[in-house]
UniProtKB/TrEMBL annotation:
Record field: transmembrane: none
Domain Uncharacterised: 182-240
Organism in which the protein naturally occurs: Thiosulfativibrio zosterae
Family matches, as CDD domains: HDc
Protein name: Uncharacterized domain-containing protein
Regions annotated as coiled coil: none
Gene3D superfamilies (alphabetical): 1.10.3210.40
Classification via InterPro entries: HD/PDEase_dom, HDIG_dom, Unchr_helicase_relaxase_TraI
Length: 344
C-alpha cells in the first residue's frame, strides 16, 4: 500500500498494449497472427512506477497489533513517497540493502512498481556512482526499466577502467541514449517494439559474457571485456537508421553497419589515446563479418552466434507467447512472409 494520493489509471489492458506498442500500418497481412508488440514484453496492468533515492526502511512497534512495515524513496523533485509492504518484501529489501555496500561516490536507488490498488507489485534496489540527474534522464528515456538496470549493471561490472569509462561516456550522450533506449531493433523482424534495440543488444552482450566465462582461464580480462563491449555495441548504428515507427531518411539509403564506427568516433578517439590496442580490437570485433573468414579474436564468432540466437529467441517468444504448452508449432509474420517455428 502506498501512502500518497495518486489517481488510479483508467486505461484497460488493451488500451495499455495499444498505446505502448503502436503497430506499423503494414505490419502483417494475416490478422490471425499475433502482433509482435503485444507479446514480446508483457506490460503490468494498471501499474505506476517510481524511481528515487532509497530512504528509510522501518517497522511500527507492533503492539498490540502486528507491526506494519514501510519503505520510502525520495524523487529528484524532492517528493518523498512511503509504501507499506509485507514482511517478506521488507526482509528481502533489508537483506539486499545490507549486501550493497556503498562507496562515498555511490548512491542507493529504489525503483518500485505499484498496482492500481496501491499494492507494491515489484521493486529493484541498486547502487550507482553516476550523477543523480543522469540516472533520472536515462530513466525518463527508457521504455523498460529492467533493461536500463541491466545496462547500468553490465557497465558497472567492467573491471578494466578504460572500458568502463568508454561505456559510461555513452550514457552522457543524450541524443544517442534517447534513441538507443527507445527504438526497436528492426521495423518488422526481431525485437520490433519500442526499446527492442536495447533489449537485443543486452541479450547479445550477456550471452557473450556467459560464454566467455566458460574459458576465463584462457583469455585475459581485458580481451573478455572488450568483446562484451563489442557485443553490446554491435547494432548501435541503428540509432541513426530507425525511429520508433519507421526508418530515418539516412536509414533508407545507408546500412546501419556502415554507421557504427561513425556513431562511436569520439569515444573511440579517446580510447585510442589511452589504450590503442583496445580501441583497435573493439573496432575489429564490431566490424568483423563471417564473410571475411577466420576471426582473429575468439570472441568474433561468439558475437555473431549470440546475435543470431537472440534474433531467433525473439521470433520464438513472438510465436509461442499466446500458445498453451501443448502447442508444438506456431506461425509469425516477418517482413510480410510467414515463418514457421517448432518446439517439443
Amino acid at each position: 500500500m502506498m501512502n500518497s494520493n495518486n489517481n488510479n489509471q483508467n486505461n484497460s489492458q488493451n488500451e495499455i498494449n495499444q498505446n505502448a506498442f503502436p503497430m506499423p500500418y503494414d505490419y502483417y497481412a494475416d490478422e490471425s497472427v499475433m502482433p509482435y508488440e503485444a507479446t514480446e514484453i508483457p506490460l503490468p496492468p494498471n501499474s505506476k512506477q517510481y524511481l528515487g533515492l532509497a530512504g528509510i526502511f522501518s517497522s511500527s512497534l507492533g503492539y498490540p497489533t502486528e507491526p506494519i512495515h514501510y519503505i520510502s524513496l525520495t524523487t529528484l523533485r524532492g517528493q518523498t513517497l512511503d509504501f507499506e509492504v509485507c514482511y517478506a518484501t521488507f526482509q528481502a529489501l533489508k537483506q539486499q540493502q545490507a549486501q550493497l555496500s556503498l562507496s562515498q561516490a555511490e548512491n542507493l536507488w529504489l525503483w518500485v512498481s505499484v498496482e492500481s490498488g496501491h499494492e507494491l507489485e515489484n521493486w529493484r534496489l541498486f547502487k550507482s556512482d553516476l550523477p543523480n540527474h543522469l540516472i533520472q534522464s536515462l530513466y525518463e528515456k527508457a521504455q523498460h526499466f529492467e533493461t536500463l538496470l541491466n545496462l547500468l549493471e553490465l557497465i558497472q561490472g567492467f573491471k578494466t577502467q578504460v572500458i568502463k569509462d568508454f561505456a559510461q561516456s555513452l550514457l552522457y550522450n543524450e541524443n544517442l541514449m534517447a534513441s538507443w533506449l527507445s527504438i526497436p531493433a528492426s521495423k518488422r523482424h526481431h525485437h520490433s517494439f519500442p526499446g527492442g534495440l536495447m533489449v537485443h543488444s543486452l541479450e547479445v552482450a550477456q550471452m557473450v559474457k556467459h560464454n566467455l566465462s566458460l574459458i576465463e582461464n584462457e583469455i585475459s580480462v581485458q580481451e573478455t571485456e572488450v568483446t562484451i563491449l563489442a557485443a553490446l555495441l554491435h547494432d548501435i548504428g541503428k540509432t541513426q537508421t530507425l525511429t520508433i515507427e519507421t526508418h530515418t531518411e539516412l536509414g533508407r539509403l545507408v546500412d546501419h553497419e556502415k554507421l557504427t564506427l561513425l556513431v562511436l568516433a569520439e569515444p573511440l578517439s579517446r580510447l585510442k589515446a589511452k589504450w590503442s590496442k583496445g580501441a583497435i580490437t573493439l573496432q575489429y570485433l564490431i566490424t568483423w563479418k563471417t564473410s571475411a573468414g577466420f576471426c582473429k579474436f575468439i570472441g568474433g564468432e561468439m558475437i555473431k552466434n549470440a546475435d543470431q540466437l537472440s534474433t531467433k529467441l525473439s521470433l520464438r517468444r513472438m510465436g509461442f507467447s499466446d500458445k498453451p504448452d501443448y502447442y508444438n508449432y506456431a506461425k509469425v509474420m516477418v517482413g510480410g512472409q510467414s515463418v514457421y517455428l517448432n518446439r517439443i
